[in-house]
Amino acid sequence: MNSRKVVYLFFTTLLVGSISGAIVGLIIDWSVLIEGGLVNLLVGVIWLLGISAAFSLISQMGFFAYLTIHRFGLGLFKTVKLWNRVQVVLIAFVFFDLIYFRYIAFATENETIFHYMLMPVLLLMYGLIVAYIKSKETNRTAFIPALFFIYVVTIIEWVPALTVNDPKWLWIYLTPLLVGNTWQILMLHRLTAEDPKGRSK
Question: What is the DSSP letter of 151?
């Protein structure tokens, strides 16, 4: 990966993250944004693009942090198989925490723990799809790291919105993170010039 490819990944992630977050923000706040006329709408769009760009920068920091942690994990546990098992345990741990601790913190009298299972399950399913695509385009050993990154790292980056528990901010915050993380994990092997079997050209 040379500097040109790093710059390309940076700006394309910034772009897709900003646009995706702005689109979701427009959908959520459309009635509010159009109340003040065209000027209010333009200011709102600019603000959404800016805040989404900030979230996409967080996704990029998380991505490069995970690449470092991944190399460290491979060195610590010696084999890919063992390191992948550790990541599976961490995925299960985060899945449980995302359900249980949000239920404990925010549940009302009319809500059960099942109300807090939908979001973690949908996010896990999305992660499985992305990980499957990644493994098909590279090799089978990439499945667990891709799933770990999409699920665990995205949730860690999402924590500020999770603690507020505002549905609007949950989606506006999550969208650029998830889109940015997906873009980065699926672009990495293309930028590092790997063939379908995961060997460097």
Answer: I
Q: What is the crossing angle of helices 167-191 and 154-164, to 10°?
A: 170
In a domain, 200, yes or no: no
Beta bridge partners of 104: none
**Predicted structure pTM score:** 0.89
Look at residue 71 and tell me if it is in a domain.
yes
Structure tokens at 172: 């506006």
What does the pLDDT look like over 119-175, one tens digit per residue?
Answer: 999 999 999 999 999 999 999 999 999 999 999 999 999 998 888 888 888 999 999
- CA-to-CA distance for 1 and 184, rounded, in angstroms? 13
- 199: in domain: no
Tell me, yes or no, whether 187 lies in a domain: yes
Tokens of 142: 């990439």
Phi, psi angles (nearest 5°) of residue 200? -70, 140
